[in-house]
Amino acid sequence: MSNRPSEQLSAGSYPRPAATIPARRRGVPWWGWLIVVGVIASIAACIVLFPIVAKEGISAKDDAAAVVDRYIKAAITHNVDEMYSLSDNIGDNSRDKASFQNSIETTFFKPNAAFLANYQSLSAGPYFSMRTSNDNRTSLDISGNVIYKDQSKGSFSATLMRDGDSWKVVKVKLDPPRSE
Fold first, then answer.
1. Which positions of the chain have pLDDT values less than 50?
2. Would you say 120 and 148 are in contact if contact means Cβ atoms under 8 Å apart?
3. For residue range 12-60, what is the model confidence (pLDDT) as tens digits?
4. CA–CA gap between residue 71 and residue 82 (Å, rounded)
5. pLDDT value at position 10?
6. Which of 57, 96, 109, 118 has CB atoms 3.0–4.6 Å from 148's, for a disulfide?
């Protein structure tokens, strides 16, 4: 028997058990499970939402490229009415058809005359930029390749604005065919 008072026995008593440390629970604490569930939910949301968002962006890019193609084909035939209907004529780009025609003569027809005569088709590249302005208008910048009738390739870049369900051309720039 020891001389320590806590371990001495009094008449009719049993020794007090030594203080025990509660057994540590095995496993992950509740907040750990909360973190795991949150991470899994975030990953699942990304997996589900990414294809939807990517598809919307790719669809917008393809729709915009089709508008640019129609715009260039209208320019080939000097169909100013079609070009005007495909142009963004709202807000800062607002203009009547006569001023549009004057502008398009000097800014598109003359600089691109040689390219337009040989134009066959275009294909949008994989990269594009979509943004929303302060006045809640969505713009899209795309670029890609132009294929000419002689099978040479050039490039194009275009800026379009969303107008309801359709895209309207703000500007199109054609670059000369590259020698390969």
1. 55
2. yes
3. 566 666 667 666 667 778 888 888 889 988 888 777 766 655 545 557 7
4. 7
5. 57
6. 118
Residue count (the chain)? 180
Tokens found for residue 24: 């540590």
**Structure tokens, 48:** 């589900």
* Whether the predicted model's global pTM rises above the 0.70 cut: no
Rg (CA), the chain: 35
Angstrom distance (rounded) from CA 170 to CA 180: 30
Instruction: Please report the sign of the dihedral spanned by the C-alpha atoms of residue 50, residue 52, residue 57, residue 61.
Output: positive
Sign (positive or negative) of CA dihedral 50, 52, 58, 61: negative
Using CA atoms, how far apart are residues 153 and 158, in angstroms rounded to an integer?
17
Q: List the structure tokens of 37.
A: 């569930």
Count the helices and strands in the chain (H runs, E runs): 4, 4
Q: Determine how β-strand 119-132 pairs with β-strand 166-174.
A: unpaired
